């Protein structure tokens, strides 16, 4: 039995900031992100996630990385859109955390990278 509705799905995210990821939604409420941009291609890690589903194909996916980076995605699967809010340690900012936001495209894909139209 799936622990969350995105389990077993894969997506490609391309942010306006230039960051690009392959996201694999795994069992045990985990997510594997893998960078697909040339500068850091192949960088990857598995994160324990908190996920909430809302009406209309909207999801909130949140996690804290080992480095302390906090990541929150709001994903609109019907419109293939994602917005991210992240914070990381920076003592020059209030509370010692620097915020960073970016947005971009979110597309479900098959293992071969082709669009997964059945997920839409």
Please tell me about this protein's structure.
Residues 8-92 form the MoaF-like domain. The structure is a single chain. The chain has strands at 10-15, 20-26, 30-35, 44-48, 50-54, 58-64, 70-76, 81-89, 97-109. The chain is an all-beta fold. The chain has a single domain, classed as Lipocalin (Beta Barrel), CATH 2.40.128. It has a nine-stranded antiparallel β-sheet with strand order 4-3-2-1-9-8-7-6-5, with no helix packed on it. The protein is globular, with a radius of gyration of 14 Å. The model has no long low-confidence stretch (mean pLDDT 93).
Q: Topology, pairings included?
A:
Elements: E1 10-15, E2 20-26, E3 30-35, E4 44-48, E5 50-54, E6 58-64, E7 70-76, E8 81-89, E9 97-109
Antiparallel strand pairs: 1-2, 1-9, 2-3, 3-4, 5-6, 6-7, 7-8, 8-9
Domain MoaF-like: 8-92
Pfam families: MoaF_like (PF22036)
Protein name: MoaF-like domain-containing protein
Mean pLDDT comes to 93
What is the terminal-to-terminal distance? 21 Å
Beta-strand fraction estimate: over 45%
Question: What best-fitting shape do the alpha-carbon axes yield?
Answer: globular
- SSE pattern: EEEEEEEEE
Radius of gyration: 14 Å
Task: Kindly state the percentage of residues in helix.
Answer: under 10%
Category by helix and strand content = mainly beta
Which superfamily, in CATH terms, is the homologous superfamily?
Calycin beta-barrel core domain
Strands, total number: 9
Largest sheet: 9 strands, antiparallel
Number of domains: 1
CATH architecture: Beta Barrel
Low-confidence stretches: none
* Name of the top-level CATH class: Mainly Beta
Strand adjacency order, main sheet: 4-3-2-1-9-8-7-6-5
Total DSSP helices: 0
Protein name: MoaF-like domain-containing protein
InterPro entries: Calycin, MoaF-like
């Amino acid at each position: 039995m799936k622990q969350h509705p995105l389990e077993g799905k894969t997506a490609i995210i391309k942010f306006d900031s230039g960051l690009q990821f392959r996201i694999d939604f795994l069992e045990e409420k985990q997510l594997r992100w893998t960078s697909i941009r040339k500068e850091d291609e192949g960088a990857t890690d598995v994160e324990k996630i908190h996920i909430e589903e809302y009406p209309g194909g909207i999801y909130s996916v949140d996690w804290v990385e080992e480095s302390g980076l906090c990541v929150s995605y709001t994903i609109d699967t019907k419109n293939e859109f994602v917005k991210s809010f992240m914070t990381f340690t920076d003592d020059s900012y209030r509370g010692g955390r620097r915020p960073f936001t970016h947005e971009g495209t979110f597309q479900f894909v098959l293992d071969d990278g082709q669009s997964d139209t059945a997920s839409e």
